[in-house]
Amino acid sequence: MTVRVAVAPDLLHWAVERAGWDDETVDRRAPKLDEWVAGRQPTLKQLEKFASDTHTPLGMLFLAEPPDEEVPIPDLRTLSNAGVARPSADMLDAIYICQDRQQWYRGYAVEHGHTPLEFVGSATTNDRPALVADRIRNLLNFDVADRAVFSNWEDALRRLIDRIEAIGVLVMVSGIVGANTHRVLRPEEFRGFALADPIAPLIFVNGTDTKAAQIFTMIHELAHIWLGESALSDAAMNADHGQEAELWCNQVAAEVLVPQALLRSDYCGEPTVAELERLAGRYRVSTLVVLKQLFAARLLTWGTFEQLYDEELERLIAILATRRGEATGGNYYYTQPLRLSRQFARAVISSAFEGATGFRDAYRLLGTKKHETFRNLAAELGVA
Predict the structure, then answer these.
(1) What region holds the IrrE N-terminal-like domain (predicted)?
(2) In a domain, 295, yes or no
(3) Which of 91, 247, 257, 273 has the lowest CB atom count within 10 Å?
(4) What's the average pLDDT block by block, 10 residues per block, for the chain (384 residues)?
(5) Containing H/E element for 194?
(6) How many CA atoms lie within 13 A of 248 on its CB side?
(7) Rounded-to-integer distance, Cα 331 and Cα 176, Å
(8) CB–CB of 276/290 below 8 Å?
(9) 268 domain residue, yes or no
(10) Same domain, yes or no: 105 and 251
(11) Nearest-angstrom CA–CA distance, 144 and 133
């Protein structure tokens, strides 16, 4: 006799929404959903598969009503001028994974004599963004002249990551959840987050965004570290109101990347696409950052800025969609250290080789299941 399991229809709908499934995905992956909602309950095996496919803890499907899941860090997003009411499973799991990695690395750092970093929590939103931007730029050796050696956006991003990690901040850039290439993170939901800690601060950047946008997000999240606060962000550069800390971090990030004093002398006077791209190439930033700083420097009115920002955003979205369509994957051992943080990955591998961390835990932290993959990753990172 087949045993069926009673599940509240609202929970089934909640799991589907939480997973971000559209109607086509529901039809393909849960073709009996309408039957279950109508009263013909699923078998336990069917429910287990449904829970696995939607990345829902099985126990949650036995609740009387959908739970009120909260983002585990302060949610400062202002998407459409309002925080997202129901976080996706992908976003939540990305945060949980990074919290787990940070907790491990903090213990490792303490054992190896790391001391609190002076810049974590060294600023407040009462500080002038330009002054804090100067401190960040100087600590990173990231003046505009230093960027001339960057060959392209990807080179600029990698060099910036190296410089941020060199001052003690873990940087993880990924467009997927863990190592699961089928769980793609959406920049429309969030662009990044910061996990503040005096010894093991961590920055996560959504890797599905453009390289130029990732650079801005990275500095935005670094500004949160300077405030000493964890935060989930969308780094909306055109926001004119919202959380004070978000607006402040935007100002700091924009000033780090495009100092207003320098921009005033560089700007040719007309915000054409060609001029925006010229300035974006010089500063190694998005054209949207250039627009923001042109407005901040009072070289554009708010009305002109809004119009140009919307037009440029639409143009960039079209370019990004084309690039995504042309994407053909990449070398795992080239991209995985970026997803993990090279500093973090080296620490885990070294700890495993030393016997302080079991290989099973090391595999979990690195998102791999095979020892061969572990060995190859160690070779890529130069860990013997």
Answers:
(1) 189-294
(2) no
(3) 273
(4) 83 90 90 88 90 92 89 80 71 96 97 97 97 96 84 82 96 92 89 96 92 89 97 74 85 94 92 93 88 93 91 80 56 72 94 94 92 88 81
(5) strand 192-195
(6) 21
(7) 15
(8) yes
(9) no
(10) yes
(11) 13
Yes or no: say if 271 and 255 are a contact pair by the CB < 8 Å rule: no
The answer as to whether 120 is a domain residue is: yes
Query: Is 280 among the domain residues?
Result: no
Same domain for 186 and 108? yes
- Give alpha helix (H) positions in the chain: 9-19, 23-29, 33-38, 44-53, 89-111, 129-140, 153-166, 211-227, 244-257, 260-266, 273-283, 287-296, 302-326, 332-340, 342-354, 359-366, 371-381
How many separate domains does the chain show?
3
For tokens 């290439």, name the residue: 181
Q: Which amino acid is at 333?
A: Y
Q: How far is CA 274 from CA 150, 303, 304, in A?
A: 20, 20, 17
The boundaries of the domain holding residue 43 are 9-62
- One-character DSSP codes across 218-284: HHHHHHHHHHT--EEE---TT-SSS-HHHHHHHHHHHHHHS-HHHHHHH--S---HHHHHHHHHHHT
Q: Choose the final residue of a domain: 228, 257, 286.
A: 257
